[in-house]
């Protein structure tokens, strides 16, 4: 969330839906799975971070 919008969430709410898509772009086949969660914020002012948040990467 912070990377895309500058908004920092303390936690995520429940999962709302999963969207799966397959497409062909620039000569390659792609498979994309989006997990959409509920997020609530109290202030819409972006926060800055000195370093990007740590995320888990699945390969």
General description of the model:
- The chain has 59 residues and is mostly beta strands.
- The model has no long low-confidence stretch (mean pLDDT 82).
- It is elongated and about 40 Å long.
- The longest helix is centred in the first third of the chain and has 4 residues.
In oligomeric terms, what are we looking at? single chain
Main beta sheet: strand number and arrangement? 2 strands, antiparallel
Radius of gyration, CA atoms, in whole angstroms: 15 Å
Q: Number of DSSP helices?
A: 1
DSSP strand count: 2
Structural class call reads mainly beta
Question: How would you sum up this structure in a few lines?
Answer:
With 59 residues, the chain is mainly beta. It has one helix at 2-5; strands at residues 15-25, 28-37.
Main attributes of the structure:
single chain; 59 residues; 1 helix; 7% helix; elongated; two-stranded antiparallel sheet
Write the layout of secondary structure elements.
Elements lengths: L1 H4 L9 E11 L2 E10 L22
Antiparallel strand pairs: 1-2
